[in-house]
Amino acid sequence: MLINLLKLLPPESAHQLTIKLLKLNLTIYGKKAEEFNSLKQTILGIDFANPIGLAAGFDKNAEVIKSMLSYGFGFVEVGTITPRPQKGNPKPRVFRLKEDEAVINHLGFNNYGSEKILKNLKSFYSSQYLSGIVGINIGKNKSTENDIDDYLFCIDKLSDFGNYITINISSPNTPGLRDLQLRGRIETLVKKIQHKQNEIEQLNNKPIFIKISPDLEDEQLRDIALMSLANNVNGLIISNSTLKRSNTLTSLYKNEVGGLSGKPLFIDSTIILKKMYSLTNGQIPLIGVGGITNGNECYEKIKAGASLVQLYTALVYQGPKVVSKIITELNSLVLTDGYKNISEAVGKSS
Ligand SMILES: Cc1cc2nc3c(=O)[nH]c(=O)nc-3n(C[C@H](O)[C@H](O)[C@H](O)COP(=O)(O)O)c2cc1C
């Protein structure tokens, strides 16, 4: 199996090779996922064939949207995209924690920049044969005069494309980025973005999600919930990778610097998700991310309050067949609980 060969390469080389193969359209991994009526939902006006999305960071440059949709993802989030291209932090900067089914990365928003990625998005939309939902995740350059202006610049530049936009203020590898989550700063950011949303016609009906960290304290979570309700924030993505290291980690790489993702993130990110669902009274659509490796865990996120979910690290360990596996398992779980549609299960354990 190719996935086992890829695991023999250093993580970043394996990723680069994967992107190259996907760009060649070599559908090497398997068959397309089945569609189930029980998993179809309309969220914020967007029709999702299933609730499982590809999390940001896999297709940073919007190069392989079509291939990833063809593996069965209900939606693909590209980015994080910054206004100008940047190389990111010095290598090595991605580590596989095999024994823990986790990854630590301190990539630092390596991406081709908004100009080049705009071209990739144009070419996806002009050649599209599949209907598919695309999210555009944006961030700020490492060195920038005004961080909020970087978000406004990307929104302006990329406004013609994508079904929704994600404001990433939670990656741990860009100095100062997470400070945008602080009370006052986040509200200023949201207000300026909403102003821009009203200015540009194409953005009027395009939802904007804010992606938050799993490392927020309860008070910060409460602030974000209240701010989101007061300002009609469209949706929240919970969560990015964590800086915390639980003492259950066993891999040699457990003390590498950066954001930890994968299995060990599942519990903390789900707790935060559940808290946010209750703090927002279930009024704001949430996307649950962090440590999903199977249908059960996916269903737990839904029952904790997520309308949709995303994953990344499970692809590293299981390859893209994990998508159809989760879809099939999720359909059974929903039907076994007596629901006709997954939307009925949202928040049921909160
Ligand atoms: C190698 C790698 C790169 C990532 N890059 C980004 C990124 O550019 N922007 C972002 O919002 N999240 C990024 N993430 C975080 C994921 O989108 C996701 O929130 C996190 O990995 C938790 O999900 P998982 O446990 O299923 O991987 C990255 C994750 C990994 C593993």
Q: What is the overall pLDDT average? A: 93
Indicate the CATH topology.
TIM Barrel
Tell me the strand percentage band. Answer: 15-25%
| Helix/strand/pairing category | alpha/beta
For this structure, what is the CATH class? Alpha Beta
Order of helices and strands: HHEEEHEEEHEHEHEHEEHEHEHH
Are there runs of 5+ residues with pLDDT below 50, and where?
Answer: none
CA radius of gyration is 19 Å
Strand order of the largest sheet: 3-4-7-8-9-10-12-13
Helix content: 25-40%
Number of E-type strands: 13
Distinct ligands: flavin mononucleotide
Largest sheet: 8 strands, parallel, barrel
The CATH homologous superfamily is termed: Aldolase class I
Number of domains: 1
Q: Please tell me the CATH architecture by its name.
A: Alpha-Beta Barrel
Distance linking N and C termini: 40 Å
Number of helices: 11
- In one word, what is the shape? globular
What secondary-structure arrangement, pairings included, does this model have?
Elements: H1 2-6, H2 11-23, E1 41-43, E2 46-48, E3 52-54, H3 65-70, E4 75-81, E5 94-97, E6 102-105, H4 114-127, E7 133-138, H5 147-158, E8 164-168, H6 185-199, E9 208-212, H7 218-230, E10 235-238, E11 259-262, H8 266-279, E12 286-289, H9 295-304, E13 308-311, H10 313-318, H11 321-336
Parallel strand pairs: 3-4, 3-13, 4-7, 7-8, 8-9, 9-10, 10-12, 12-13
Antiparallel strand pairs: 1-2, 5-6, 6-11
Helix pairs in contact: 5-6, 7-8, 8-9, 9-11
Bound molecules: flavin mononucleotide.
